């Protein structure tokens, strides 16, 4: 021990010599006191443009088509632009920003890249607001570090491959829970995921790219920390993302398709609907405020479209049936308010779903998620259609058919549970069976969906 020459370090009382003690950092230069170790101290409010100015004009439901994520890309372009000076917002992704239809951001920024480039490289510069590398682990780590040191960000990914960072998400969720219990820990910006290129629209990619299970993983975590949103169209996506980017200390998961799709709500209606997180679409239903015969519920862009198409069939062929349409944007609204801060009270839930009527629920992900979230509710007549691990390289509509979530199966599910549909219901079910057979023959011959599917539009009714 004498080889350490303790006499040069300590006085005769064993105290560290003052000149050595003075070498230790002071104030914010101490490791534990460094503001970068408590990023909330450095956090500056994100400059966010008015999302309403990016709205899609929707004169009536399904009257126009738009790419939901492409519309969002224009909004994110200006988020980057408005935060150029503080330079405190970045988009992260595993080389999918263009594929996910966010290409408009490259009108104002580049991919940060400090290595050599070749002439055919696109948007690579030593300074940029987008960080991409084909490693979900790397992107997640970058974003977590960025947030922990007081900045803001967004992780965009194919839905199936976000599962690669399941364990990293878990550790960040646990860190958020524990840090919230420490009064000296300042809040940081939320970890925001945008999951697109989702299970229902994989086109040429097929079965390997079909996995909505990140939702299942997320809802296991502490309710105070996690949020899951499934906006049905572009205006709802804008409203949801505006909320997520402004939030603190959450993990927000937003799931929405990137392909051109019929738009459903004008901006005012979308903002109101997203603020509530769940609601009855009176313009779509036929219950007119009275107790319905059946509740047609939906959550997710493709399930919502199939539900509306199913309701349009019932309006035509079963006009006496009282149908209520309920759309869910904020998935956690389905849980009781005793379990999640966004959950509905039993009274509010029953006002939407009734206490005993059959609910035909079309869901974006695995059906058991809905059963799990609603199992404490009074109404046990919940029948959920969703992804059940059936998929291949096929048409968009065929994906829903393979999983029994298409408009025809949804109507048949309703008929099976409502004996009052009588002979009309029996005949309609026969016709729908023929439609499914026609569908199979048509896509086998032409490789695309039938015109009546591709060109379907909601009957022209005034939007309320």
TrEMBL record:
Record keywords, A-Z: Lyase, Thiamine pyrophosphate
Cofactor or coenzyme needed: thiamine diphosphate
GO BP of this protein: carbohydrate metabolic process
Keyword Hydrolase: no
Annotated Xylulose 5-phosphate/Fructose 6-phosphate phosphoketolase C-terminal domain residues: 258-458
Taxonomy, superkingdom: Bacteria
One Pfam family in the UniProt entry: XFP
Single GO MF descriptor: aldehyde-lyase activity
Keyword RNA-binding attached: no
Positions of the Xylulose 5-phosphate/Fructose 6-phosphate phosphoketolase N-terminal domain: 1-41
Matches recorded under InterPro entries: THDP-binding (IPR029061), Transketo_C/PFOR_II (IPR009014), Xul5P/Fru6P_PKetolase (IPR005593), Xul5P/Fru6P_PKetolase_C (IPR018969), Xul5P/Fru6P_PKetolase_N (IPR018970)
Membership in a protein family: Belongs to the XFP family.
Name the UniProt record assigns to this protein: Xylulose-5-phosphate phosphoketolase
């Amino acid at each position: 021990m004498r080889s350490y020459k303790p006499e040069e370090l300590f006085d005769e009382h064993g105290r560290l010599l003052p000149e050595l003690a003075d070498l230790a950092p002071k104030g914010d230069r101490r490791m534990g006191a460094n503001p970068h170790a408590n990023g909330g101290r450095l956090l500056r409010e994100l400059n966010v443009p008015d999302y309403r100015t990016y709205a899609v004009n929707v004169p009536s439901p399904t009257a126009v088509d738009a790419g939901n994520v492409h519309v969002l890309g224009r909004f994110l372009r200006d988020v980057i632009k408005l935060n150029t000076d503080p330079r405190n917002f970045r988009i992260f992704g595993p080389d999918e920003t263009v594929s996910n239809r966010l290409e408009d951001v490259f009108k104002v920024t580049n991919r940060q890249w400090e290595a050599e480039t070749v002439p055919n490289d696109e948007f690579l510069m030593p300074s940029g607001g987008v960080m991409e590398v084909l490693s979900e682990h790397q992107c997640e780590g970058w974003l977590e570090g960025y947030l922990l040191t007081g900045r803001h960000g967004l992780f965009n990914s194919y839905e199936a491959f976000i599962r690669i960072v399941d364990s990293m998400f878990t550790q960040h969720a646990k860190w958020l829970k524990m840090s919230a219990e420490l009064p000296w820990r300042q809040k940081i910006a939320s970890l925001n995921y945008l999951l697109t290129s989702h299970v229902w629209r994989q086109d040429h990619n097929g079965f390997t790219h079909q996995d909505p299970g990140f939702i299942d993983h997320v809802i296991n975590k502490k309710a105070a920390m996690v949020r899951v949103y499934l906006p049905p169209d572009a205006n709802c996506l804008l409203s949801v993302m505006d909320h997520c980017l402004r939030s603190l200390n959450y993990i927000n998961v937003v799931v929405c398709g990137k392909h051109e799709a019929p738009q459903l709500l004008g901006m005012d209606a979308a903002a109101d609907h997203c603020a509530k997180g769940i609601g009855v679409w009176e313009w779509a239903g036929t219950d007119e405020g009275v107790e319905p015969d059946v509740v047609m519920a939906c959550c997710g862009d493709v399930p919502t479209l199939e539900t509306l198409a199913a309701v349009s069939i019932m309006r035509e062929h079963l006009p006496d049936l009282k149908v209520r349409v309920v759309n869910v944007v904020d998935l956690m609204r389905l849980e009781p308010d005793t379990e999640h801060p966004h959950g509905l009270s039993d009274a509010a839930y029953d006002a939407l779903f009734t206490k005993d009527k059959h609910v035909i629920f079309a869901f974006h992900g695995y059906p058991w998620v809905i059963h799990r979230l609603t199992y404490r509710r009074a109404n046990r007549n919940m029948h959920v259609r969703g992804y059940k691990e059936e998929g291949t390289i096929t048409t968009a509509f065929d994906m829903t058919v393979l999983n029994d979530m298409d408009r025809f199966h949804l109507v048949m599910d309703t008929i099976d549970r409502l004996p009052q549909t009588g002979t009309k219901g029996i005949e309609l079910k026969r016709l729908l069976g023929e439609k499914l057979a026609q569908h199979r023959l048509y896509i086998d011959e032409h490789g695309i969906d039938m015109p009546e599917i591709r060109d379907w539009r909601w009957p022209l009714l005034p939007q309320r």
